[in-house]
Amino acid sequence: MTPDWIAVDWGTSNLRVWAMQGDQVLAHSASDEGMSKLAAQDFEPALLRLIAGWLGAGVMPVIACGMVGSRQGWREVPYRAVPCAPVQAGALAAVATLDPRISVQIVAGLKQSAPADVMRGEETQIAGALAGLSGFDGVFCLPGTHSKWVGIAQGQVAGFRSFITGELFALLAEHSVLRHGLSGEGWDDAGFEQGVTEAFAAPLAGTAALFGLRAEGLLTGLASAAARARLSGLLIGAELVSARDFWANRPVVLIGAKTLSGLYAQALGLQGIDCQSFDATACTLAGLSAARLG
Fold it and tell me: How does DSSP classify residue 99?
């Protein structure tokens, strides 16, 4: 195996690496040594634990994106201000390393002044998606712990908005009074669509609708699968209501994991919006490749 370079997606919780030959994946590895678990001096050893077997006598280029470039990361890389291309040629930040066999560069995140917002890692996925969408003018939605809605015009990120929807679901499901009615692993599509519909019908009644899940569990025996799905629908529906200016009357492309992207597509479908869906990992690799060649 003779990789030309190594692609790295370094998030808050996980580190993922790929040995690359051009745009082809030769090997893949991962660990749970995300940014939140590491001090500045720990990043290089964590990376080498995964990639040492891919290194030879020469210097291996390593292109990284994500929280590795945050204030708590290996090196803080300043955000680039929108409007701008998602990944800019020459905008990679080099990191000093002790091991002479690696040359590490980090992709810069993006910032928006008003309303204040930031992203790290998503810009690389957007660049990768745009590489496969000639002349795209529309909206990317990147579902996740902190989902992003991103407006694209003439190949540039024109503006974006982040939503804490995924984190809210986890907090409510695991640490609120609602947790008593959400145990188990089942799912109820009808319950999810009911939650989305409720959110659109009465967007100002969000917290009351959330407590209603607990009340229905006590009074009518609402099944945990239906309650969990409705909670997801209420939260995703509330996000879509707030993001309506992004997706109304514009092409929408989802970038994310299959299951979560499927829920967003289902919710948007209730509003008459058809979406394309792109795999997040494929977009990340295409974006890192674009950053390397740029």
Answer: S
Where do the DSSP E strands lie in 107-232? 110-112, 117-119, 138-142, 147-153, 156-163
Which tokens hold the place of 70?
């945050």
Q: Closest by alpha carbon to 291, among 3, 1, 33, 8?
A: 8
* 15 beta partners: 10, 31
Residues 183 and 266 in one domain: yes
CA distances for 291 relative to 127, 235, 284, angstroms: 8, 34, 10
* Count of structural domains, the chain: 2
Answer yes or no: pTM beyond 0.85: yes
CA distance 236 to 137: 24
Give the CATH number of the domain where residue 167 resides. 3.30.420.310
Residue type, 4: D
pLDDT in tens, 80-110: 999 999 998 777 999 999 999 999 999 999 9
Does residue 46 fall inside a structural domain? yes
Q: Residue 24: beta bridge partners?
A: 21
Q: Are 34 and 67 in contact (CB under 8 A)?
A: yes
Parent domain of 12: 5-120
